[in-house]
Amino acid sequence: MSQAAIQNSSATTANAEFDVELRQVCKLFNNETVVRGVDLGIRRGEFFSILGPSGCGKTTTLRLIAGFDTPSAGEVLIQGRRMNAMPPYRRPVNTVFQSYALFSHLTAWENVAFGLRLQKHTKAEIQQRVDEALKLVKMDGFAKRFPAQLSGGQQQRVALARALVNRPTVLLLDEPLGALDLKLRKEMQVELANLHRELALTFVMVTHDQEEALCLSDRIAVMNQGIIEQIDTPERIYQQPKTPFVADFIGDTNLFHGKIEGFYPTTLWVVTETGLKVKAKQPEAGNTLTSGTVVLSVRPETVQLSLTPCNDDRNCFEGRLQDVMYLGTHVHFQVQLLSGDRLTVMRSNSPTNLPSADTPIYVSWSAQDCLALPL
Amino acid sequence: MVSPASPLPSTTEPKAPPQWLQPLLMLAPAGVWLALLLVLPTLLIFQLSLVPGIRPGQVVNPSGLDNYWRIVQPDYFPVLTRSLFFSIGTTIACLVLGFPIAYWIALKVPKRWQNLVLLAFVLPLWTSSLLRTYAWITILRPTGVLNSILGKVGMPPLDLLNREPAVLIGMTYSLLPYMVLILYAALEKLDRRLLEAAADLGANPAQTFWRVTVPQSLTGIAAGSLLVFITSMGDFVNPEILGGASSMTVARLIYNQFLGATQNWGFGSALSMVLILVVSIAIALLLKYGDRSAAGGV
After folding, report:
1. For a designed S-S bond to A247, which of A297, A335, A375, B194 qualifies (C-beta 3.0 to 4.6 A apart)?
2. Residue A55 at interface with chain B, using a CB cutoff of 8 Å
3. Do β-strands A370-374 and A293-298 pair in parallel, antiparallel, or remain unpaired?
4. Average pLDDT of each block of 10 consecutive residues along chain A (375 residues)?
5. d(CA A125, CA A139)
6. How many whole angstroms separate alpha carbon B175 and alpha carbon B162?
7. Whole-prediction pTM value?
8. Which residues of A touch B293 (CB under 8 A)?
9. Residue B194: closest CA among chain A residues belongs to which residue?
10. Which CATH entry fits the domain spanning B64-295: 1.25.40.10, 3.30.429.10, 1.10.230.10, 1.10.3720.10?
11. Residue A89 touches chain B, beta carbons under 8 Å
């Protein structure tokens, strides 16, 4: 956990390609540390997500960028300029709030015009830009409605237009789709991705929804207990998690705690607490493990099921089938290994003869699909 | 769940009163109260107002609008404008003084202290208003507390008592707690995320105040102002005790017609009807205005 955080902290030199930089940022509320030494560099034009469970400090991190909170320690930079003491109304960022926070006494049009009117633009320019922004989010037919007369999805669009119309350097999104129902959320995800492509702005989104983060982001920072566990592309977050937390939080996985017994350049031999001898993949160069305790992560979709023991060099263990969950396109199997471990296996939906609960079944996975993560 | 053999539940249920009767039943107690103690007395006063120069004990014998003609004579015009001046002035003073107090309690004071601070502001209401008004005499009279303090710091003395300023001070002092309570109720409901949203969109604190805080608490501002306006229109204690001979108001004039030396119930009733009219106009304006802000989706 802490090892990953230290790795991320290496890039603290001023970097022109970064729109937002956090350097060793800490935030305390009532003597409780909510954000502990976060280092972030968000690149220009990037769709960056901060993903984590509730209470992990992700919203506080966003509020530190927006300026609603000031860091207790460390530095916040936007386009290379130190922003620590800069009030929110002088920062070149705009926020789409989780609850939308639309002004109930103003119409949709007036809500969008709020920022431009403060900047003393000409009437004609305000009119043109507000109309444009409302058209961009497909709300041009609702300009005269008050927020109370709009649905949740429509309010969301107005909130988006209200932020975008000011042409911020960075657009901050705080759980932007959290209050929408599933279908609407999927639609808005596509639209957010389209908007990002069209406007070429830097987007910083906070979410607890891993699917949302995985499908929208160029890079994701996974946060836990005020610390950034890993910053990577969605593919690498899923396939090369650096910590047990990331492996467990993103997608489903089977975790085994164990001790390293031996190693060979790319393979580790690990004995789990339950006595299984497992061959695992050595983490990437620079992180080579040689001894100590580790956590092994095996994704359910990489595990094979068979009725006979396999005779290659894969990890293969005997167990009993305990439970089958039919999920439409996939089937989840729960297998109880002889060692006592429970393993989740996911196979695509195909008709097979399932063994009964008292006949042996064999699970197997290759060393390549078994990640060893330092504890 | 119910077995098929059991009787249908609707047959055993007691009969509910018909749909149209329910609101009437619920409104009846308050309705009777209002009819007996508000509508009926008002009608009686209206009847009295049509009798010129009636005194207690005389037979009520309506005979025209003479009392109302008397009110519109130039003699009484200054009384009505002075009343409006005191009421509007008190309303503005309460708003200007009360808003920062209510804002501070609602948004700056920690939640658990808010009730205590509010209580401290309302505490004066627990003593007699007459007593509090007399206290102002001690403070404002030429040799009073205020002037002795001014003298100590080398300022010229102020002659406030028995003049308009003393009435304004007294009325504002009496009615400020009500304004603070109502404004607090409105500001306490203010969504703080809207303040953050305004700051995020580039509004500095002053702009946020005028463009978000004030419009969002407009219903409270209107309700508080109306309450202070109405109450001060009917206040005769402060003008009587602090205002001196020159501060005749409608309410004080009415008091004189009924309980003072003049003893002209007919004229007093006509004045009361005018006062009711002025207050009703204020309420009508608020309802119209309040309706509009409700359409804004508050």
Report:
1. A297
2. no
3. antiparallel
4. 41 68 93 92 95 93 95 93 93 94 95 94 95 93 95 92 94 90 88 91 94 93 95 93 91 91 85 91 75 90 88 89 85 90 85 71 91 86
5. 19
6. 20
7. 0.79
8. 105
9. A101
10. 1.10.3720.10
11. yes
